[in-house]
C-alpha cells in the first residue's frame, strides 16, 4: 500500500508563487501611495505658491477644487468593494494615456446592495480596458474618460463618457463582446459612439 505524501516540490513552488504575487501587490500598493503623495504635494505647492505671491483671489477656487477632490476620493474609498477601488485607483495612477475622472454625487456602499460585485467589476474593468486599448492606438491624441456611479431606489447606474481618437470598428467589437454577456438584471440603457467619443449607460437592477 502506498502512502499519500504531499508533494514537497509542488508545495514549495506554490509558496514561492504566492510570495511573488504578494511582492507584486505590495510593490503596486507602494507605487499607488507614491503617486497620490506626489499628487497631493503638487496641490499643496500650488496653495503655498498663491499665499507666498499674495494671490489671495485665487485661493477660493483652488480650495473648492481641493474640497471636490477630497470628496470624490472619499466616496471612492467607501464603495465597499476593495478590488474595484484598487482597480480604479491603479488605472488613475498607471494609465498615462487617459485622463480619468470618477464622478459620484453621493456615498454608495456597493457591498451593501444586492449586486453581483464580480459582474460589476467585470463591466467596469472591461469598458475601461477597452478605452485603454483604444487610447494606445493613438498615442499622440488626448483621451479622457469620466466614470460615474449613481444609486436610485431600485438600480445602480454606471456611466462611461469617453473622448479621444477612436478606431470605431475595434471599439464596437470590444463593447459588443461585453454586451453579449449581459445578465438578466443588467440593462444597457444607452450606447452611442462616433469617431471621437462614446457614451455608455448601464443599469444594474437591485432586488428590493
Mean pLDDT, all residues: 82
**Radius of gyration, whole Å:** 21 Å
Measured by DSSP, the beta-strand proportion falls in: 15-25%
Q: Gap between N and C termini, in Å?
A: 58 Å
Task: Walk me through the structure.
The chain is an alpha+beta fold and 208 residues long. The chain has helices at residues 8-52, 59-77, 82-94, 117-135, 168-180, and strands spanning 98-104, 143-151, 155-163, 186-193, 197-205. Strand 4 (186-193) and strand 5 (197-205) form a beta hairpin. The longest helix is centred in the N-terminal third of the chain and has 45 residues, at 8-52. 14% of the residues are buried. The mean pLDDT is 82.
Summarize the topology.
Blueprint: H1 8-52, H2 59-77, H3 82-94, E1 98-104, H4 117-135, E2 143-151, E3 155-163, H5 168-180, E4 186-193, E5 197-205
Parallel strand pairs: 1-2
Antiparallel strand pairs: 2-3, 3-5, 4-5
